[in-house]
Specification:
Blueprint (H helix, E strand, L loop, with lengths): L8 E8 L3 H13 L5 E5 L3 E10 L5 E9 H7 L3 E5 L2 E5 L4 E4 L4 E9 L3 E3 L9 E2 L4 H11 L4 E5 L3 H9 L4 E5 L12 H12 L55 E5 L4 E6 H9 L22 E5 L4 E4 L1 E4 L3 E3 L18 E3 L10 E3 L4 E3 L13 E2 L11 E7 L3 E8 L2 E8 L5 H10 L17 H5 L1
Parallel strand pairs: 1-2, 1-8, 2-5, 8-20, 10-17, 11-12, 11-17, 12-13, 19-21
Antiparallel strand pairs: 3-4, 6-7, 7-8, 9-18, 14-15, 15-16, 22-25, 23-24, 24-25
Bound molecules: flavin-adenine dinucleotide and NADPH dihydro-nicotinamide-adenine-dinucleotide phosphate (NDP).
Length: about 450
């Protein structure tokens, strides 16, 4: 039988992780339990904190996220103590965690907020980059300044932002789906955006209305103390502000999209040369950029499942994340979701007693609300789960705005809003209060009717 941990420190509440989830959790505990000590254990020397919080509407919130030195959190909340160390092991039966610097902490309640790491298409290949934290974003920027052509794999948040932001570098964008951005929006919105994107010189980029993650006060993240082998906290909206995302070429944008394909094989330059010499059955003449007409020698070559091959300087694997549960949670009996996250109920409780989880490390396992889900879009924007018994209404001005609403039984169930529509608050209210809108019919999207005045 394993010996119980001798406590070197103990706290009623212990939180693991200094990202936005862990810090918010520690702050809330500090506010609600002012006489208790809260220990925040994090592998990173900086924390992420919410500032300038504003409640915009019933469920829409606006805030800044700032990176701050760990000491700033302790100054703001005297009952929070930050321990800068990686957690090596959880012993849930003994209610204790072991940290990389050899300390043992006993808890009554533990909240795990250890985040996630990029799920790369190929681990350990120096030409395959993932973007997660300040260091990985800076490494990406460094590589990009020397690049003429890169490949981006994935169709989610990072890929969408990158293809829009990168200039002076050809981008081959490989996606599994028929249309871009299916993680976020529908095929109609994708078409609206694709035509803007592949124009060689898109109009001036849309000014940001939203507040930003700041880089002020950011420290170079020191080597992880305690050797947890984990990285810094995740970036967030506007993460590329302050980064120079420009390659070596003079043109603005040059994007080629390869749909319905995945990466089959990656060759380093020498491997590719040998394979070509042996006349392996490489596909020919699929596209003007395919290797047959491409005389340039590239550091790396990517063979896609649609049989095309592209040479490029490097590959960005924007292919999602894996929750940080290993190795420190091994040996405990957590229920995990399909994505590997710790399953939590609607009280953020995991399947192990006295252990809660929040943020990217967890997977919500409660029944989702019938009209709400977490996306930048509203409600059931793609008629998710509504069956065939629904109607779509559309208002689109090419290059300017795309407004789609999903209606069922006269009620608004979801919406996609692209461009400066100013409809988000009104539509959010209409979705949440489920007002019967049957009498308005198609006038609901009439641009001459000021809906905001009408329904507020
Ligand atoms: C480029 C990019 C852009 C994004 N844009 C958006 C956006 O526009 N909107 C949006 O909502 N979301 C966005 N996200 C996602 C968002 O950033 C994450 O969902 C969120 O930051 C996750 O926070 P977290 O606290 O769960 O995890 P993290 O920020 O990853 O924090 C995890 C913390 O745990 C610590 N840790 C890990 N393991 C251990 C251990 N063993 N011991 C001790 N400490 C440990 C780490 O050091 C870190 O401090 C973006 C993400 C990226 C990468
Ligand atoms: N605005 C926002 O909210 C933003 C959020 N983020 C967050 O940051 C994290 C990382 O972003 P990102 O990497 O873009 O992750 P996402 O989860 O957003 O998207 C991953 C994409 O990669 C695809 N994919 C997965 N595996 C493969 C594969 N082997 N080959 C090809 N495609 C694959 C997925 O397709 P499929 O779904 O079909 O598996 C999906 O289209 C995510 O948690 C994301 O939500 C990032 C930027 C902005």
């Amino acid at each position: 039988m394993e010996a119980a941990c001798p406590p070197l420190a103990s706290g009623k509440f212990v939180v693991v992780g200094g990202g936005i989830a862990g810090v918010t959790c520690a702050e809330q505990l500090a506010i609600h339990f002012p006489s208790e000590d809260i220990l925040l254990v994090t592998a990173s020397p900086v924390i992420k904190a919410v500032t300038n919080f504003k409640q915009v509407s019933k469920v829409l919130e606006e805030f800044d996220v700032e990176e701050q030195p760990n000491t700033m959190l302790e100054n703001r909340f005297p009952n929070i103590k930050v321990i800068e160390s990686g957690v090596k092991q959880l012993k849930s039966k003994e209610h204790c965690i072991l940290t990389g610097d050899g300390s043992q902490l006993v808890y009554k309640k533990l909240c795990l907020c250890a985040g996630a790491k990029p799920k790369l298409i190929c681990e350990g290949n120096p030409y395959v980059l993932g973007i997660r934290d300040t260091d990985s974003a800076q490494e990406f920027q460094k590589q990009l300044t020397k690049a003429k052509r890169i490949m981006i794999v994935g169709n989610g948040g990072i890929a969408l932002e990158l293809v829009y932001e990168i200039e002076g570098c050809e981008v081959i964008w490989a996606i599994k789906d028929k249309a871009i951005g299916n993680t976020f929006f529908d095929a109609g919105a994708a078409e609206f955006l694709t035509s803007k994107l592949i124009a060689e010189k898109p109009e001036a980029k849309i000014a940001h209305k939203r507040t930003r993650y700041t880089t002020e006060g950011r420290k170079k993240e020191a080597q992880t103390k305690g050797g947890a082998g984990t990285l810094g906290s995740a970036l967030g909206p506007d993460w590329h502000e302050g980064l120079n995302l420009k390659g070596t070429k003079e043109f603005s944008h040059k994007i080629h999209i390869e749909t319905m394909c995945e990466v089959k094989k990656i060759y380093l330059q020498e491997e590719f040369r040998i394979a070509k010499k042996k006349s392996l059955p490489f596909p020919r003449d699929h596209h003007e950029q395919s290797v047959t007409t491409d005389t340039e020698a590239w550091p790396v070559y990517v063979e896609l499942t649609n049989e095309k091959i592209y040479g490029c300087d490097f590959i960005v694997s924007a292919t999602g994340v894996t929750p940080n549960t290993e190795p420190f949670l091994c040996g405990n009996n957590f229920d995990v979701g399909e994505d590997g996250g710790l399953k939590v109920d609607d009280h953020m409780h995991t399947s192990v007693s006295d252990i809660y989880a929040a943020g990217d490390v967890c997977t919500a396992s409660w029944e989702p609300s019938p009209v709400w889900q977490q996306v930048v879009l509203l409600g059931k924007y793609n008629a998710q789960g509504l069956g065939s018994d629904h109607e779509l209404m559309l208002r689109c001005t090419k290059g300017q705005e795309y407004v789609k609403v999903v209606m069922q039984n006269g009620r608004m169930m979801g919406a996609v809003l692209i461009g400066e529509t100013d409809l988000e608050e009104t539509f959010e209210n209409l979705i949440l209060n489920q007002m019967d809108l049957s009498s308005y019919g198609e006038d609901l999207l009439d641009p001459n009717i000021d809906l905001e005045d009408y329904f507020d």
